[in-house]
Protein 1
Amino acid sequence: MTGLAEGLADPGELERVKNTQLADYVFDGESLDTRAARLGSDALLGDLEFSAGYVDGCRAVTAEAVRDVARRYFTPENLYVTVVWPTGAGDFDLGLFEEGLGEENLVESGLSAETHGLAASVESKGKMKPGEPDAYFVYQGKAPAAASVWLSPDYPLANTLARDYPDEYAFELGEEGGSGRMRLTTLDNGLRLLVLEDTGVGSAWVGALVDGGYRVEAPEDEGAFHFAMQMLLEGTLSRTGPETMAAIEDRGGSIGSQGLRDCGLLSAHVLAADAPLALEVVTDCLRNAAYPTDRVEAERRRLLDELAREDEEPFTVALREAKRAFFGDHPYSHNQRGTPETMAALTRERLLEYRDLIRRPEGTLIAVAGDVDAREIERVVEGLWDDAPAAGTPLPDYGPPAFPEEDARLALDSDREQTILYWLWPGMRWDGEDRYKMLMLDSVLSGIHLPNGRLHARLRGAGLVYAVHAYPIFGVEPGAFGLYLGTEPGKTAEAIGIVDEELGRIAAEPVGEAELARGRTMLDVSRYAIDLARPSDRLLDAAFYELWGLGYAFEDDFTEEVEGVTAPELQEYARWLFSQPGAFVRYGAE
């Protein structure tokens, strides 16, 4: 801080900070809720155009302005230091703050309002002694006393910021007709490009989806696809791994890669002007990843560390074991990161074989969303990919999973003070004929994304669980319908009993029209207000369907399909589903 006040920031550093600040601001503004919050904040300040000037104002900041602000605010009299000190660590040494600081410099103390409530905190003000748990202590050093703005009953709650602003104010979130256009192009080598133009944002999301995922892994290679996808960012023929990351991050963006159940995803989020750069970097990673031996070993160690941490996550352990019991030998039983044994055994040569599966143009879909011109993006992608021939290599095909012929039940002991229960029943492909019945079943039983539904009302209402949810697992091959809950030892039997009652009830009795209508509304809200809140969300949703041969407009009729599910159809589907053999896992004490 002293350095900023005494000298000028390095131009390169200042540019990186600006890019990061701008990117964070622009990325946050992609969602409608953030735009609404900004409008409300601007109204509170009395300047409805305040946020509109943020980007230009940020770009105009100079090194001299940063120095002047640092001189003005980074002063001893403005310095406040906060320490959270565990009571078990002994007395705190006040000399760490300032030489000679002691208890005579104590100016305020009290109980934590967060822990004890505001009333108790106010009542205890000035009465606490150092060392008391869940209490705060304020010491004054050499800086002069400042006016307190501590939230107490006499703190003025009236709005002193707002000024006059018009009762009605018209504004545009984007140019009329300039948002939502999607364009699909296929190159001669089979590579597909899907672009969503949205002029209402100042950013671009660039992704490469590659067909495959752990669906194509051999049993002995569990985790290989994700491993291979992670290696895309560990160096190419022209860039080291750090140089790849810096190419995007120095511009304020982010880049990441992962292997999923039915595909791999490599994506970058950047300011709109950097979309061509992101396309070049993503293409370089896909086409020219080098998989250096030292980086393979470093990534192996990192993945093994992540696997060890997975064992500390009870829901992850329960799902992992439920998948193995339900899907058996099929690759859908695989863990994304594999097992310690398969991670240790995978050779660089074997990973290179998965790299060859990843970089097939005919199995790749490039997706770009944001404030971009689709035709310009097409020209960039054609220049990057036109010389790449189709690989002509088919993906391994292990066919559909064989579902259990009888219930598989597994009990795993744990010394945790929590118990996780997991159920899986037979599911379907993405385009299964009962898709919308399964979604409605999820909505009625437990809500979509947000806690709701029959199971939540009964189990949470009775204090038996701290989490409960049902959800569908769709796939290129048939997946599953899952249900999980978190409880504690001693409550397991009662919780299972209520689950059995509710599953039996929805199979035996038609859902009432009001409950069905609420389920439809929740499905619509979750899809359009949560799942598809950002341009990148809308594009990625469409891109998945296009990659798997369903067409990017696969769910354009989502609302109509949901509205078409009737109570008798839902009852019939529930009766069939919950009569099928499945898998049940209890992880923890009964």
Note: The first strand starts at residue 106 and ends at 111.
Protein 2
Amino acid sequence: MARTPSPMRCNHPTTELRGTVTLQRGCYYEQSCEIDDPNTTRDCDGAELRISGEYSVNIKKNGDRAVVRNCYIIGSRGIAVRTRNTARNGETPDDVRALAASDVVLENLYISSDEHVGVHLLPHTVGVTVRNSILTGNSSSGIYMSPYGKNHRIINNEISNNGHTKPDGVPRIGWYRREGIAIDATSEHLIENNDITGNAFGGILLYKNCWEHAADNPGSRPRTEHASNNIIRNNRFGDQPFGIWVASRQSRDLRQMNCGDPTPYNNPIRTNSVFHPTYSNYPSAYTEGYVFSLYNVSIWPDFAEENVIQNNLFEEHSRGGIRVEDDETEVTGNLFIGDFDYIFVGAPFRARLENKPILDTNISNNSFHSPQGETFPNRLALIPDEHLRTILLDNYRACDDGNGGYMRHGVHIDVPVPANASSNCTNFIRICNDGTLGNPVPPPGCGMSNPDAGTSSPDAGITMDAGTPNMEELDGGAEDASVEPADAGVAPTTTDANSSAMMDSGLMSSTADAGVGSSTEGDDRVIAPAVESPSCASALSSDSSMLFILLGLLLWLKPRARD
């Protein structure tokens, strides 16, 4: 999408759009527009929208299959998708969602709003897709998902440097800094293949608003649903305090929010009576400025359970990659690069004052590279007595890919076929195994023209370690149970006898060996040793012996019968 360096001011004859409306390239427009008719497309064709004080584009409840594309939106309030905000006369949230526009697409946009959010998906909206766009430098969040929304798709966007300044240009500080994507009491969304970096407070924050300013803001509404069952996968996070924060208001001081929700806590609370001594060891334990102080705080519970964080890349974060403060979060297949707190699990007020530790966090099949050589557990902040039934399983070192990056354990790179190999393969592969690239081998399904031509078996050069690095650390330096290669660099697979252990902190771990079964990411299948079958020659030899015995017995019996 090309942008004209010095566009001229143009006007469009109407602000209520129907059908396909294409703006003039090389122009900027100061008119907002409204879409409340099905199958309406606004194609800016590279034109700029410079609207002050209101949303550039408002998509209303009748705007089914509306499309907005190819726009530069500068300085306005971005794009809003809306339906009716509240339920009436006994309606359920599902009843109101049924009124919302469906299959709305926002694509190929550049949005930088100095007044508000970039894309505002208002309450009860359903199935909006935001894709292939840049949302940067917005005063508030890049994308704000309001309560009761469902099934939005945020795909292949750059979401960067949002939430740093207020509309008047004054820097945001503390509580008022914002995130790249806000997921507020809304659920079942897919956030995939985005580049989410440099945002003021974090990449993605999931939470349930506590019914802020219930008494002093007539427009404020309670939230009854949670920020749950969202899938966050294949994104890149970096250069911000937190990558993802699950239940981000669970432990934050909300006294300035004048919350209308009930709270089980006897506010205000003295923080020095709650925080575990280990908090001072972890930058990710930071919440506002009170962790190491004696301030009184006011706390409300937060709800963001059953979320999936999968196959993302986390690079340096000043506080932490992922902070988990609600139940059943799945953290699997991610890649952490750097020396920061990869994952925090805990919730001091909930765990210690309500006896409700964080339950069933699954931290498995992740890969990491620590420039300082730290182990995976040493880069975790699992707060004692604040989590229970946490699974820590099969987390391995990443491999240098030779091109300035890192690759996950179990993943392969393609390499040329070795000169001395007689093979019908077009390439060989090298598989990453716990920080080490194996020798070149044929890829699965590609045979050797001459197996004796100087190449090794498909697993050659890969040594299986029976104990994961995290277990060696958690068990106080247990002996390395790896088995040295017996032949051609292939090690037999072994399993530690203590393959499942419950730790005092509520941590469940396993030392099961992670064999390399294929080139698929996250495939840590154990390769069982082959069982040798009896050879054909052995079977024939045994059968021949029985025949000779039977013939001899017949010859001995035959003369006695004639007598």
Note: Confidence is low (pLDDT under 50) at residues 450-563.
Protein 3
Amino acid sequence: MVDNVSLRVVGDLETSCNVQHQRFFNPFANNPDANCYTACAYSEASFSLDSLMISDNWGSYFQWLQPSWTMTGGTVEVSSSHPWAWETRLTFDAPGEATLYYQIQVEDDYACQSIFTLAFCFDVLPPPEASFSTQPAINSAGILEVCEGQSVYFEAETLDAETYSWLFGDGTAASGITAQHTYTTAGVYELQFIAANGCECADTSYLQVVVVGNETPFVDCVATICEGTTTTYTANTGCSSYLWEISSNGTLVDGGTSTDDFITVEWGSGPVGEITLATDGCPDLSDCNAVAYIQVPIVSAAAAISGSESVCKGSIETYSLPPFEGTSFMWSVGGYGNIIAGQGTPSITVEWYDGPEMPPAQWVQVTYDNCYLGCGGNAQMEVLIRSGYYLSGEIEACEQGSTTFHVLNDQTHTPVPAFLAVLDDTGSIVWASGMTVTSALIDWDFGDGYFTVQATPQDVDGFCQEAISTRVYVYPQSPFASSIDGSTIICPGAAYTYSINNPQQGDRYQWTITNGATTDIRYGNSIAVSWEAAGPYLLEVVRLVAPLSCPSQAEVISVLPVPAFSISGDASVCTDQLAEYTSSQTGDLIYEWRILPATGGTIIGSPSDAFVQVLWHTEGPAQVQLSICGQVATLAVNVLMPPQPIVQYPVALCPGS
């Protein structure tokens, strides 16, 4: 359960809001020393939020809309009992990392909406493998066959569990890495071996045990002894032949032939000595021909501790000695470990340090003493607490933007060489470093949505995690959604104004100005530019979209100096005629019209427009001249006197005609 999560909306709330803001939170993102939650692979768990408060800078609260849960590395089932879906049931997939996302959409009094996503990470641990061996050994059919009264020895083959439980199937049980049991009644039994770790997940192995209703040879005087002790062992049944075998740490002193029902052994170092006895022609044992196997606990001055020598921060480990009968045990560990169970017994459980420091080499030590036998000793094991590592980088990004991720040791915070990869929501790799790096710049050109950045260290054995990952949300790139007002044909050296037509409320605009040999960046809805004498000239404008100020698609405008131009209009006119003349170049330019000679005509209208009218006065050749940005165009005009009218009339008129 997570208690009292508080989120705060940072920034001003617009009174007219038409942009949907999104924020992505990871409670562990800013604290690399903090652990994720721990879970067990293929297990189920309940997860809930106790309370969640969302407010702005002024303490105002919001109307909640559309809460939802999603999960990677598992599945999430939402409880219908809570109106805001704070209670969930999680099912975890394979070992690795899982992330649970809670998304809530809120709306204020002005209909401004924000979307918050909380990310809760989980270290999904593999269950310990419940594997073990037996003496006598399991047969080829996977069944353990023993005789009634025969001692059976069990030993766990996995050391990554915290607890070991043996259920023998006859109503009795034992715990520990090793166990010994004698089945006293013939029958078929199902043995269960359960290995469990601290995340309360376990693996169980099953074994069928068939107990034949006839006893094996009984060997007496089997008990814990001291190193260097000579002991005689006797089979208490009459047989025609005996086959004795002892382990290499024993020396035969007497007996042990095929006709001897005893054997005398001088034992060397421990922790155990082994005796096997096969017999033939034993009328008291009927047809049970199982070989008797006996373990002799030997208290040596220097025993070997069983357990993990390389551990992870925060791990819980088991360390043990053989269960010497009548022996006291006093355990101790280094300053970065804590004995949480088993003190005074042959097996202890240790919880190792889980903080930010780099711990020195640690140790597990035990002193043991059998006051009855008068022997004992001590043992020590060096333990290395391995480092972890983490990814440092932003968990929100912009499409077509870039983010730098660093791989760092979680104790020294120094760089860790690792392979980096980016996976999409289907698990497909869309980017990979290709070689080991300690940091990488990732360009987000794979589209928008959720992505996973994954790091795998070059030295996998040097760290606790085989791979780590972090979830990144990539905001989609928005269209520019506006147009730009301003002249694209300019006079070099002149100043021009450019502005956004219908700017989007709440967004900023970034202008990148290429002006000859210089490039300048400005912000605002409008800018003024004094263009240099020589190009190139270029304007590139993007809209910076909340909440990350992600650049929109760019609007690019090429600005060109005034090209060569010409004048069109009447080239042959009469005096007192009004004629029209137009520049082939139009735009936001300065036009300077002239008539040569100046007395040849009068410009009607503004001489600074692209179009003028001229009233011609004087007969003869003339010119219409236009100057734009220092360039001059001329049109020759021939001004003629208008033709004189010729009156046709009769020479004489008659009265009344």
Note: Confidence is low (pLDDT under 50) at residues 1-34.
Protein 4
Amino acid sequence: MVVAAGLAFGCTGGPHPPPNRPAAETTPPPAPASSRVSEPTRTAEPTEARLLELEDRRAFDEAVLRAGAAGTSAELRARVALALGRIGDERGAPLLSRLATDSSVEVRRSAAFASGILGYPSPSAVGSLATLLSDPDASAAAWAAWSLSALETLAAQDALVSALRSAPPDRRAGLLRALWRYPTPAAAAAASAFAADADPNARATRSAALYALARRPQESSRAVLTAALGDASVDADTAALCARALGLLGKAEAVGPLWSAAADARPPVRLATLLALAAVLEKDSNSGVALPAGAAARLVELSGDTNPNVAVPSLALLRWAAADRDAFRRLWSVASSGRGRRQQVALTALMGGLGERSKDLVDASMASADPFLRATAAESLSFLPAADADARRTRLAADPEVVVRLRTLEGLRTPPDVARNRGLVDAALSDSDFGVQAAAVAALAQLEDPAVLPVIRDALVKSAAAKPAGPDVAIEAIAAAEAHSDDPGAREIVEAAYKHPSVLVSRLARRSLVRKFHADPSAYPWRTYDPKSAEEYEQAAASERDSPLPIVRVETERGTLVIRLLPREAPLTVRNFLALARRGYFDGVRIHRVAPGFVVQDGDPTGTGNGGPGYEIRDELNTVPYETGTVGMALAGPDTGGSQWFVTLAPEPHLDGVYTVFGKVIGDMEIAGRIEQGDRIVRVAVAPERMP
């Protein structure tokens, strides 16, 4: 399955981003009647191993969870609150609302966080969280704000804006940061009131306000964001986010301020401005906007930097300077005789800058022995005239390497591209690789034609009958159905996915039926996963109590990263990672994704971004924040992790509570910053020593 930690530029926190604006307020379907029961018979308080089993199976055992929620230990009640969120069954919402009023701060904090990962936006859930915004404990209030952000309803937004009006100064930052998921006039107005505060004592508040405005920017905030980018008192990470926002808005007027900020000595700002410039030039390519005078020479210089986070974005920007002699020579040299990711980026830049005149270079790249260079050519064929591109796609679609066939389909960027190459797409539905089949489904989904829905349904049914039945095609089919949710044929696709042999697929379909197609939840019971052995859960529970924490050494071609694992926060995830490392699963594997300034991602033996160990593990979402050097599990949707993992290259708070954190890089992060896409892991070794 395609697994990502978010998009490289303009990411919203997941491969299937939430809607661009809050949905109109609706009352969620009532929880099934089984959640409204009389007092249960007495049940023994659950052990940690039992809670791990329920989380792992995604099993809602009401008697056990009620017993834990009524336990005498605050630690147990807090743990049960987290389990309710992780299990993800809406029948747990009333218990969470009760725990949100617990006398223990620890329990209220856990209930606040768990309400967000449960994601059930009932009026009572919103009300409980709104009350917690004024909790005496600042951490409980902050997690309540985070969860109101995660719910993404107008009522949740209004609760945040209302609380902000009377919040004391030390509570404002958490409320403001939570507004980032609401790109609405009301949220923008609330954040703008604090975005220009020059008081040095209010820097955290100002940074949070700018974060809210920049994460999903609106045109009305462009002036504020531009001013913040040029303000030296704004911290580097916030300034970088403002640059990114200007790139997303894509206005030609941003080119000047962005180019000026590219001279900033702070690496996050410089990198973000280079990426943002490319985004603006891409979006405004038909208006004649160009790089400033003298930019080509500077970019040629930067493209030779030893730091890939500088060199790679600079090479990409030279696409818009390809008419410059020195820029052309630099790109041609790297594209024809370079290696790795830099060669791939230079090839794409030349194809974009030269168009039809790049055909000879494209043909030479298609004949390369390097499948990843062939894949780059395949993905970038849209820069050629349609007839030239389609003729080459036909050849590349028959390439023996999966990555080339995959990128050929992903290079169909527009509905006309898909329509012209419909035969190629339909043939890919029978490819031997599930990832290629899934890419074909994603291509068909671009067509605003309900006639493709039966084709997608047939592909889903065919993949479900395969042995084994992989989830890739079904996941894309569900996404395609949601994009056509007004058509009755779309619901038929998701109904078929609900019956898929994969528990993962069935659960994703059930989530879609209830949340997107407004189905009665009682008509679609949650399927649960088969349990592991009792011994495995006991061992995982025991690992949480280990005082010395396990560490692993990730040996790369650029140096060794040392990672401290976090079994207390994610015991089953850590056990899975250690088991894979001990059997040499990661050794020699290509680092298939480096998003400059964002993440380094590994764990796919195929190098395509689709590979994994042949099974999925459940998310263990926790409150550890995504700071620089945080290690998380990559996903293609809830509970789709397996072997792909990533290291953040900067603070990424929009990932908090969305991807499982299971480790932290300790020591030198410069090594992570030197890694280039296509480098290989030498080995991942479990160190004999442990960290306190």
Note: Residues 5-40 have pLDDT under 50 and may be disordered.
